[in-house]
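Example 3.2
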Amino acid sequence: MFEFRHNVVNVLSINSFMNIRGRSDSWFKDVYFVRAVGANEVLIKEIENMDNILYKKMDNGTLVYKRISSLPKSISPEIVKDYSECYEKWYNSGRNVLLTKTNASNLFSKFLSEAFNQTFKLFCLGKKDINTSIEKNYAIKMMIWLDSFFSEFIESWDIEKSLKIVADNIESRQEYLFFYMLTLIGCDVLLIQSKKDIGKTEEKLKLSKKFVLGKFSDIDIPKFCPENLCKSCSSGKTTLPLKESLQGKQSFIKVTIPERTRKKSSFSNLNDSSLKNTNTNKTPDKVITSNNSVIKTKKYDEYVEKNYEELAGFASSVVMIAVIDSGGKIAGTGSGIMIGKDGYILTNNHVIKNGRFYVVRIEEDDNLYDTDEVIKYNSVFDLAIIRINKKLKPIPVYNGINKLARGQKVVAIGSPLGLFNSVSDGIISGFRKIDNVDMIQFTAPISHGSSGGAVLNMYGEVIGISTAGIDEGQNINLAVSYECINKFIKGFTY
C-alpha cells in the first residue's frame, strides 16, 4: 500500500536538490531522482557548498547525507561467497525479505526486497535468457554496494528521515538502477553527470529527470572529505531553505551574514532638521549632522538628472520572478530589484509567499536562475529578499537627503502581465500611510506582475517598490517607500 512518488516538484539546480524535502505520511513519501548534466564555472563551488551545509545538518541529526565518487568495479571471491548466503536466504523466503550483512529491521528488509524486485525487472528489459545465475550476481553486487556505502544509514533507517545521496559520473546500467533502488527505500538521489550522461536505454526508462548545467567537461570533481568540512561549516554565510509556507505572524527569518556587511547606513539617522546647504536641485558634497559629524555624499557632477532612455537602462537590474508551486507549475509572476552584488534581490512578500521555489529571469541573459533561498521577509512592509547564485549589478536606493515631493517625475520598471521589463513614466501624486506603512502614490502605469518592480527618481535611484494598484481607479498605484526599504535591506547592499 505504501507509495514512493518521484519528482513531484521540478528540481532545476544543485541548490534546489540540497534544499528540497518531500512530504510523507502513512501512505506515501515524495522522493527525488535527478541528474545534473554537464558542467559550468560554479559546479565545484556549488558541490562544496552542498557538502558544507548538508554535512552540518547531518551533524545536527536532521538528515543523512552521503556523496560518493565511484562504486567498486571488482569484488573479491571471499566477499561474493559471504553475500551468496544472503541471496539464498532471500530466495528461500519467496523473495520477500532481503537481509544484507548489515543488521536491519524487518520493515527495512521488506522495503529493500520490493525495491530490488522492481529494479531487477528493469534490468531484465530487452535482455534474453535471464536465469537465476544472472539474478544472483545482480543481487550480490547490489547488496555489497549498499553495505559498502550505507551501512550506518541501514542501521538507523527511518522512512521519515531526510536522506540525500549524491554520486558523480555513473556509467553502467546496474549502477544507474542501484541509485534508483535507493529512492525506493526513501532516499533523494542526485547524479552529477559532468563528463557524459546516462545511456539512451537508461534514459528511455524515464526514472530520473535532468537539468543541464552546461557542456560536458573533464573537470575533476573532488572527493567528499568530511574531515575538511568542520572549519568551513563554522564560518561564512548561511542561508535558509524555503519553508512549506511563509504565512504566519513571524515577521523575519534570521540569517547570519558576513561581518563586513554589518554596517549601519550612513544616512540612517538623518532627518530634515539635520541637513544644511541643501536644495531641490543638487546634493551637497558634505552633510553636517546635529552632532557635528560629517558625512560625504555624491559629488554634484555625479548627481544629475537622467533622461528616459538612460533610466530605461536600469531595467538590466530589474528581474522577472516566476513563482513555482508545489506541483511544479507556474503559480504567478512578479518583479524584483537587484540590491546586493552577491545575488540579493528585493521583491514583495506577497509575490513569493506561496512559492515552493522561484525562477529568475535577467535582461540580456539567456540563463534562467532558480532558487528557493528566501533570505528574509516582512509581511507588514510586504517586503522579501531572495538570493540567486550570480553576481549582480544593484540599483542604488534613495538615501532621503531631500524630501520627495508631489508632482515629482518617476519611472516604473517591472513585468506587468508577464511583459518582461516594461518601462513607464508618471509623477508622484501623493503620500499615504496604509496600515502604518509609508507608501508613495504614483501615476506611472503598472499591472499585475509589476509587484516587486522598481520606482525610480530621475537620478536612477529606487524611491519605492511597486506594491499595489487600485483597479477601479486610473493609474492609482502604490509603492512601499524607500524609508522602509532602507531599514529592511541593511546588510545586503554591499
